[in-house]
Amino acid sequence: MTDPNPVFDAVLGELTDRQREHVEAAYALLEHSREPVHRQELPALREPTSRDGLERLLRRTGRVLVQVDDLRFTTGYDDAVAEELTARGWQPLSAVERAVLVLVLVYSVAIPRSEERLGQDSWTSTYPATEQDILRAGKVPPVAARAALSKLVSAGVLRRVRGGDTDGGYVPGPQLLRLTPAARARLQDQLILAAAPDHPLAAAIRRRRDSTSKENNR
Amino acid sequence: MNERDTALWWAKARSGGPQQVSAGTATPAGMRRLIESDARSVWFLPAVPSAAGPQVLAEYGQPASTWPDTAGTLRVFAACLRCCWPDPGTDPWPGRPAELAHVDWVLELLHPARDRISRQRLLTAGLRRLETARWVLPASGTVRLGPRVAMWGPLELSTVRELWRLIPDPAADERREQP
Fold first, then answer.
1. What are the pLDDT digits (tens) for B90-143?
2. Of the N and C termini of chain B, which has fewer Cβ atoms inside 10 Å?
């Protein structure tokens, strides 16, 4: 595993040993940690040359730096890379997994948000979607739905909360914090279209998408 | 291959695990190329330097992305490792295919409290979970180790070898008794 890596070497070759060490450590923490990383742990962000090196390294591997709040950072997919892969039909989740994910997001995020119990751009939730919500309200066969839930939890896309008698269920997992601002906006639009297709907001989203796609075709 | 295509391959491997392609495909920069035993296809895996790998998390006191064994998945993996990797002196990849009946036999010793039906269920679910991340590659009636085992560094490998010795294998014991 200590073989030379041309991607890392091309970016990090120009840095001093200390800068290189900081950038590699930041890459490791941001890319492999389940939760966002406090900026105290990331000396590479405090110094412009290292920060630039880190961002270039991430971009070469299809990733970008994402600021979660004032103090914490993580990494996510580069929007351009995600768009290109999607356009080519790349989809690592199965249809059932996506359906289950949407159900959990509708119950744990979209509904509380529409009742103003959650902030507009918040992708953490204290309102779990219960197993009942997912199994009864959805049209996904229970055995397949349970398998999908367990996969999404182990991937960190969902988190399982065990509450008292009624509060147990599923909420968005730490991986959703890796979404870039553009990806969050897209997901928010998709949730409105899925949960309330007849709502005026959904009509506005469709109009906006229509006009941007026309502009792009011009 | 240009920088854009390289970034796309890295993103594919991150979201979908190691990627299997036909042997003629050029290797993206910074990725390892693992040749399948039939030499017709190869796997691409990211070759992150160890100073930027997941092992750094421990140095910074960050919790590693561990895998809780509540569902017994790790025991299923241990059984596969024991059966598909007969000689721990060699590299685990590509190993050799093992009969599921053999894996089940080892699993029985690792999970003595389970009856046959619940063990069968555990084996099926465990293999499915392990296959998602390409730790194992199940086929009909057999299983072999997946390309992800080739990502272990020397330190991890020596730990895995120690663990391997703790996993019982009734078939190997039997062979020893009947020389």
1. 999 989 999 999 999 999 999 888 899 999 999 998 998 888 889 999 999 999
2. C
Give the N- to C-terminal CA distance of chain A in Å, as an integer.
Answer: 49
Q: Does A11 touch chain B (CB under 8 A)?
A: no
A positions 103-162 inside 8 Å of B (CB) = 147, 150-151, 154, 156
- Residue from the list B11, B50, B51 with its beta carbon closest to the beta carbon of A62: B11
pLDDT tens readout for residues A89-130 = 999 999 999 999 999 999 999 999 888 898 888 888 989 999
Size of interface A-B (CB pairs under 8 A): 117
Q: Which of A2, A7, A50 to mutate to test the interface with B (most CBs of B within 10 A)?
A: A7
Boundaries of every domain in chain B: 3-59, 73-172
Sorted by sequence, the CB contacts under 8 Å of residue B153 that are 6+ apart come out as A1, A2, B50, B53, B55
Give me the phi and psi of B117, to 5 degrees please.
-70, -45
Residue of A181, A178, A207 whose CA lies nearest to A192: A207
Determine the Cα–Cα distance for residues A73 and A66; give it in Å rounded to an integer.
Answer: 6
State pLDDT tens for residues A26-52: 999 999 998 999 999 999 999 999 999
**Chain A environment of B7 (Cβ under 8 Å):** 59-62, 78, 81
Q: How far is CA A203 from the centre of its chain?
A: 25
Tokens representing B141 are 């009636």
In this predicted model, what pLDDT tens digit does every residue of B66-79 receive, in sequence order? 666 667 889 999 99
Buried b (16+ CB within 10 A) or exposed e, A80-100: ebbebbeeeeeeebeebbebb
Share of chain B above pLDDT 70, in %: 94
